[in-house]
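Hi everyone,

Forwarding the result from last night's run.
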Amino acid sequence: MDFIDPHLHMVSRTTDDYETLARMGCVAISEPAFWAGFDRGSADGFRDYFEQLTAVEPKRAAQFGIQHHCWLCINAKEAENVSLSREVIAMIPEFLDRPGVLGIGEIGLNKNTKNEATVFLEHLDLAIEHDQLILIHTPHLEDKYQGTRMILDMLCDDSRINPDRVLVDHVEEHTIGEVLDRGFWAGMTLYPVTKCTPDRAADMIERFGGERLLANSAGDWGVSKPTAVPDLIYQMRRRGCDESLIRRVVHDNPSEFFAKSGKFAAPVR
C-alpha cells in the first residue's frame, strides 16, 4: 500500500532510509523544522537549515521516487531564546514561496513556559499573515496534557485561526479526543519511547474512526523508526481493519490536508 509519512526528519536519517521507505511504499514525506540535537547560536544557522530543507532534501528524496515537502519555524526547544526566535521568524518569509514548503511548523510548546508561548503566538501571526497551514508540536510525557490544553486554548482564542488548516501532532489517548472535538486534524506519532506504539495507534483509530486522523514516524536523531507507518499498516491488517480505513489514515488524509497548502498533490502510481 502506498503511504505518506507526514512527519519525518530526514536530515537526521541516512540515504539508506530513503531506499527502504521507497521499497515499503512511501510516496511522499513531510519534514517539519525541528531541533538539530543542540541549540543553534544564530539566525544564520537556521538560514542554512532552511536551505537544506527546501533545496537539498527534495533532491535526495527524488532519487528514490519520493516527494519531499517541509515546514519552517524555530522549534519549541529553542523558543526559550525569544530574541533569536524573532530573528528566525523575520527570516522565514524569504523561503515560504519555495515549491515544497507546506506551512509553519512544527511549532508548539516544550516545557510550557511563558517564552515558548510568546514565540508560539508570534508564529501564529506569521502563518496568518502569509495564509499558511500550521503544524503543531505537543510536549512529551508529563507535560503533554497541560501543554496540549494550553496550545488548544491559544488557537481557539484567536478568531483568525481555521481549525481545518491546523494539524496537532503527537496526540495520545488522553489528548486526541479534545483535538478532534475542537475541529483540528490530529497526528499520531509511532515513536518507541515518548509517543505511542502502532498497537495503541490502532486502538485510537478503532475508537475515533479515520476522520482527520494521520499517522507518522517522527524519525529523528534519537531512538526512532522511520518505517513505523508500515508497522501500523501491518497491525491494522492483523486486526482485520478495512483496507479503505487503513489507506485513509496513512495516505488519503495527509494528502487531503497537505493539498490545502496549494503545493501538494499525491503521486499517481
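The chain has one domain: 3-259.

Cheers,
N.
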